[in-house]
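Appendix B, record 7
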Amino acid sequence: MCALSEEEMSKVHAMVSAKEMWDTLALTYEGSKVVKRNKLTMLNCQYEMFAIKNHESIQSMVSRLQVVLNSLRFLGSIVRQYEINDKIIIILPPK
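Structure tokens (predicted):
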């Protein structure tokens, strides 16, 4: 309880059990199963359609890709390193 902000405390202060508090906070920050599934679908689409932008550096492209991959991992999706490597090789410009 000491780690909660005032806003979080206002959401859970009337709850009786720690489980009830946890479920409320999890729903607030993670969303429902439907929301998670929709986010995962959107992120998978972003990953599949990911491409380097015109005049973008490789470092910048990898940073953008890392944001998508971190979001996927947060939602429980597993993207293997060899898949990431293949993705980067495919989207790199010929030069």
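Remarks on this record: Residues 1-30 form one domain. The longest helix spans residues 58-74.
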